[in-house]
């Protein structure tokens, strides 16, 4: 499956490929990769029926009358509501929950002719950085199953990386699409806050949640973005201004581009091979005619602390709805309070309960100014530093995405390394705090044949420009050859 979405749709529209044939190829990939535990719910039977119907429709209509995603298998993270298909958030408390409505972004994919092949595994309620905190099992990295896939959207990214689907949706609140994309060697994109509707995405942190897109090619990310971007009356945070056609240049150029290298992004613990790759790609930008200059974002070092205070505070509020009364798992108790306590103690894992408790602590009246208000001030300072950097003439920032290539499971799961594992998000979290668009592009492999990727960041709502630069980087690196080899 080495075609882009556009190429595959074109083949199906001209009759040289059927939707059923394409679906069967993807299902073969699903079977080969089942030990990676990337999928929570496989929607194969319904997809077979829809693929046959699309093939019949193709016989009746001209290609131009068919949808832009005609017969393309896609996957979505299991925190997107899907009518008639269970939505678990990889948690026991929602293990049998079946919504009666579909998230706006997912519905747009379906309306365009896409086939929802799978709901994918994740860290429970998207609280994690390795996709190991799941009631449905740990997600494995397709490049080396002893390595973590990254999180919290690990299942979506692995489904793309192993060729089970062309593209997948995840949620990115602090790096949850970009982190696993870097570990697994795919393109992981986080849009400007509000560019894609969050309606139907089960909330982690309302003020930072975004719908992310993962695909093997930058062109495919842009193709999906063009379908799902835009204002939604059901999401008050979605951007109201009209969204232009998302169309990338055939041969993007970076000549004359001002590329910023933030020297504050040399975080402690960043591996030598990541720093060397960062330096190598910066040199390639310069050789291609870009102006590579230094940039300063000094508050980056405070990003993780501010993020976790704000995240845990919003989690404490959002998780109050899981009480075992209206839906989901329900335990027993002699009183209402005991019912709540027992339901949450059994239905939620340690990581989720820890965030709820910490968030309630931060929001206590005696702590509110000390923690929550201070974290909000740091958030504003970080956003202002990004704005000042871009207003100085810098077009794009080039940064690492994680501290090192995918860590081993035994290291990642060791409780002594829990805080260190969170440090992987230092390069991605500040983007969410500021609401900016960012994308991770795989650029090469390390000595152990594990992917290395770098992050690009542009000003708010400069998403098309961002993806054009990413496409240039992708074309230069030719990383797709490694992915094709991995899949075969």
UniProtKB/TrEMBL annotation:
**Domain Amidase residues, every copy:** 22-467
Q: Which domain of life is it from?
A: Eukaryota
Keyword ATP-binding recorded = yes
* Location of the active site: 77, 152, 176
**Record keywords:** ATP-binding, Ligase, Mitochondrion, Nucleotide-binding, Protein biosynthesis
Q: Which Pfam families does the UniProt record give?
A: Amidase
| GO CC term, one of those recorded | glutamyl-tRNA(Gln) amidotransferase complex
Which terms in the Gene Ontology molecular function aspect does this entry carry? ATP binding; glutaminyl-tRNA synthase (glutamine-hydrolyzing) activity
For this chain's UniProt record, which GO biological process terms are given?
glutaminyl-tRNAGln biosynthesis via transamidation; mitochondrial translation
Enzyme Commission code(s) on record: 6.3.5.7
Q: Tell me where it resides.
A: Mitochondrion
Reaction catalyzed:
L-glutamyl-tRNA(Gln) + L-glutamine + ATP + H2O = L-glutaminyl-tRNA(Gln) + L-glutamate + ADP + phosphate + H(+)
| TM segment ranges | none
Family under the similarity heading: Belongs to the amidase family. GatA subfamily.
PANTHER family cross-referenced by the UniProt entry: GLUTAMYL-TRNA(GLN) AMIDOTRANSFERASE SUBUNIT A, MITOCHONDRIAL, TRANSAMIDASE
How does this polypeptide assemble, per the annotation?
Subunit of the heterotrimeric GatCAB amidotransferase (AdT) complex, composed of A, B and C subunits.
The function of this protein is:
Allows the formation of correctly charged Gln-tRNA(Gln) through the transamidation of misacylated Glu-tRNA(Gln) in the mitochondria. The reaction takes place in the presence of glutamine and ATP through an activated gamma-phospho-Glu-tRNA(Gln).
What name does UniProt use for this protein? Glutamyl-tRNA(Gln) amidotransferase subunit A, mitochondrial
What organism, scientifically named, is this protein from?
A: Dimorphilus gyrociliatus
- Specify the taxonomic lineage: Eukaryota, Metazoa, Spiralia, Lophotrochozoa, Annelida
């Amino acid at each position: 499956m080495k075609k882009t979405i556009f190429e595959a749709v074109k083949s199906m529209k001209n009759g040289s490929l059927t939707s059923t044939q394409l679906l069967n190829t993807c299902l073969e990939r699903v079977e080969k990769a089942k030990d990676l535990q990337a999928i929570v719910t496989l929607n194969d039977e319904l997809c077979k029926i829809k693929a046959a119907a699309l093939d019949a429709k193709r016989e009746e209509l001209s290609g131009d009358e068919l949808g832009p995603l005609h017969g393309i298998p896609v996957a979505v993270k299991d925190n997107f509501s899907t009518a008639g298909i269970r939505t678990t958030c990889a948690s026991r408390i929602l293990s049998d929950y079946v919504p009666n409505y579909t998230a706006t972004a997912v519905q747009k994919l379906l309306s365009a002719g896409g086939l929802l092949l799978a709901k994918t595994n994740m860290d429970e309620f998207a609280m994690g950085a390795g996709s190991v905190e799941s009631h449905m099992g740990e997600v494995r990295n397709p490049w080396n199953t002893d390595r973590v896939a990254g999180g919290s959207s690990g299942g979506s990214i692995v489904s793309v990386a192993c060729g089970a689907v062309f593209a997948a949706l995840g949620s990115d609140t602090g790096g949850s699409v970009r982190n696993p994309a870097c570990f697994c060697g795919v393109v992981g994109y986080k849009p400007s806050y509000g560019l894609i509707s969050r309606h139907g995405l089960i909330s982690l942190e309302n003020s930072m949640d975004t719908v992310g897109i993962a695909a093997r090619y930058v062109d495919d990310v842009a193709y999906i973005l063009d379908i799902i971007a835009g204002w939604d009356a059901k999401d008050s945070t979605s951007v109201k201004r009209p969204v232009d056609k998302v169309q990338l240049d055939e041969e993007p150029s970076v000549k004359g581009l001002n590329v910023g290298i933030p020297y504050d992004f040399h975080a402690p613990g960043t591996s030598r091979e990541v720093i060397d790759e960062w330096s190598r790609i910066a040199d390639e930008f310069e050789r291609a005619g870009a102006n590579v200059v230094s940039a300063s974002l000094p508050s980056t070092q405070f990003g993780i602390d501010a993020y976790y205070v704000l995240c845990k505070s919003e989690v404490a509020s959002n998780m109050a709805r899981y009480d075992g009364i209206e839906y989901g798992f329900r335990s027993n108790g002699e009183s209402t309070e005991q019912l709540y306590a027992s339901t949450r103690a059994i239905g939620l894992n340690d990581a989720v309960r820890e965030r709820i408790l910490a968030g309630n602590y931060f929001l206590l009246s005696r702590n509110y100014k000390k923690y929550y208000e201070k974290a909000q001030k740091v958030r504003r300072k970080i956003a202002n530093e990004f704005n000042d950097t871009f207003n100085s003439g810098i077009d794009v920032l080039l940064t690492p995405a994680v501290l090192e290539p995918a860590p081993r499971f035994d290291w990642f799961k060791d409780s002594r390394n829990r805080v260190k594992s969170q440090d992987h998000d230092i390069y991605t979290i500040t983007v969410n705090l500021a609401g900016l668009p960012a994308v991770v592009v795989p650029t090469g492999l390390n000595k152990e044949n594990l992917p290395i990727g770098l992050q690009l960041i542009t000003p708010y709502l400069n998403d098309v420009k961002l993806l054009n630069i990413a496409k240039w980087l992708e074309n230069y690196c030719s990383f797709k050859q490694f992915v094709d080899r991995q899949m075969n």
